[in-house]
Amino acid sequence: MIIHRLQDVLGTDREVRAENWTSRRLLLRDAGMGFSLHDTVIRAGTTTEIHYQNHLEAVYCIEGRGVVHDVASGNRYEIEPGTVYALDEHDKHLLIAETEMHMVCVFNPPLVGPEVHDENGVYPALSEA
Ligand code: 9YT
User: Which of 8, 13, 25, 49 has its CA at a distance of 20 to 30 angstroms from the CA of residue 123?
Assistant: First the structure.
């Protein structure tokens, strides 16, 4: 059994900061679970273009409010505590944080650790690294 606590991740290389968000990576590929699990804070007032071409992601909102805009369809979905969105088709999207948002995120394949978005909102496929 693996036990990790958020407090043990804070301030380590498992706390990854980007311009619009901070991702606290609780479980990564090295845990051998087949997914990674992140506690992620999205900064208020930001819009992030994201396109996980190499990963599937599910996101569960536990605090805050915002909108996910699906680029292909033009659909917009209100996100609030208790809402999950799953990018089952590698959906290119905009995440618009009206307030600070606190999310629990799961990635398949699991992230390795240091990934941040490239200029197209993509994480590299490090699963063979
Ligand atoms: C919701 C979302 O995708 N935010 C970007 C950060 C990502 N969830 C991560 O690496 O934790």
Answer: 8
Q: Which residues are within 8 A (CB) of 51 and not within 5 positions of it... i.e. 6 or more apart?
A: 90, 91, 92, 93, 120, 121, 122
Residue with tokens 């992230």: 111
Q: Which ligand 1 atom sits closest to the C-alpha of 24?
A: 11
* Model confidence pTM above 0.85: yes
pLDDT in tens, 47-99: 999 999 999 999 999 999 999 999 999 999 999 999 999 999 999 999 999 99
The enclosing H or E element of 9 equals helix 6-9
Give Cα separations from 9 to 6, 36, 38, 66, 76 (angstroms).
5, 14, 11, 26, 33
**Centre of ligand 1 from the C-alpha of residue 93, in Å:** 12
59: CA distance to ligand 1 center in Å? Answer: 8
Which residue, by CA, sits nearest to atom 8 of ligand 1?
105
Q: Backbone dihedral region of 28: left (phi > 0), alpha (psi from -120 to 50 degrees) or beta?
A: beta
